[in-house]
Amino acid sequence: MKLPVALLGFALGLATTAAAQAAEPPLPVTHIVYKLAQDGIAVRSLEAEDGAYEARVEATDGTIVKVGIDPQTAELTDAYSHARARRAHGPAPKVSAAEAIQAVAATGHWDVRAIEFERGAWEVKAGDDQGRMDKFRVDGTTGSVR
Question: For the whole model, what pTM was predicted?
Answer without folding.
Answer: 0.77
